[in-house]
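Thread: Modeling a multi-component assembly for a lab meeting

Hi all, long-time lurker, first post. My supervisor asked me to bring a structural picture of a complex we are working on to next week's group meeting, and I have zero experience with this. I have the sequence lines for every component (404 residues in total). Could someone generate the structure of the whole assembly? Inputs are pasted exactly as I received them:
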Amino acid sequence: MSTYLDVGISPGPIPVNHSTNVKVFDSRTKITELVLRCVILGLGVLSAVLVGTDSQVKEFFSIQKEAKFTDMKSLVFLVAANVLAAGYSSIQGLRCIISMVRGRALFSKPLAWAIFSGDQVMAYVTMAAVAAAGQSGMLAKVGQPELQWMKICNMYGKFCNQVGQGIATAFLVSLSMVMLSCISAFSLFRLYGGNKMKNVDW
Amino acid sequence: MSTYLDVGISPGPIPVNHSTNVKVFDSRTKITELVLRCVILGLGVLSAVLVGTDSQVKEFFSIQKEAKFTDMKSLVFLVAANVLAAGYSSIQGLRCIISMVRGRALFSKPLAWAIFSGDQVMAYVTMAAVAAAGQSGMLAKVGQPELQWMKICNMYGKFCNQVGQGIATAFLVSLSMVMLSCISAFSLFRLYGGNKMKNVDW
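Re: Modeling a multi-component assembly
Sure thing. I ran the full set together rather than chain by chain. Output:
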């Protein structure tokens, strides 16, 4: 008997046989997934480059001081998270393309679980990186006078602007990851639904 | 025809009729959900109290200075997120209990979507709050000498310790929210699976 409890058991390659509505919806979902993965790849690289290559030199009484992203640990985390998201999305995007070119690929629950888990982790990691970098950015912009942490963006205006753009781009990356994690949750958990499940209450 | 595209259409109250395995799994999932919601309620309140009531007075050359959570915007965000999570969980927990007491409740896709959306938002909000507060906490603990932001935990040791406990508790809250958001994704998306969907590739 096949219930939705049979985690990890692949139904194997079986010819697809479903209505036109479902087919159209499936192909739209696949295309949305591919587009989102490409967006994450592009914006992830852009954000990492914007933050990672940012620097500004200022002279204070003949002493040169350079602001760079490694001065702030949260920006290092942001760059790392974006590089990771871009790399992860390129692999997943490749899988999407292969699956679309082949027309029908064998579907397995373990693969769906792997994609779901990866997307979940990446969504939370990118969101956390944006939150931490955003917090640092706010401190740099407005300071925290109660703690004697002075704002530095009045000195390094160009540097701060570029970091701001990098954080905004990273926010779009994390939003795309959140949407993807919803799609992969859908792809995984609908495998556990039978017709009789439609009437179950929670 | 009922496909998995019929979003928003409630099947209405229909007697539950499924195998023992599924019944056991369902009731275990419900209990897990209720336990997690209670954990979030308890830990959310604990974290908010730990951070919100924390204060320490130090005297510097006859000038008294008090450290409190409002000195750091990220801690205010953390307290707000925890209060929100606790309030949200108490309402959702109540819904769980009512659903369990009634035995069978009418299940509707709009309700499942509402629970799923709420859980997703709360999971990301609590995770972002922990990341931002954690970043501030690290700055307070080790400082950022490149930016002339000095560590303050050597002066306010007791204050910092209690905030650290609050952040750790909030991290448990956000982990529980992540688990809950997976459960509610399962509860929602399995409604969209038919038997024929089991063979579809992605």
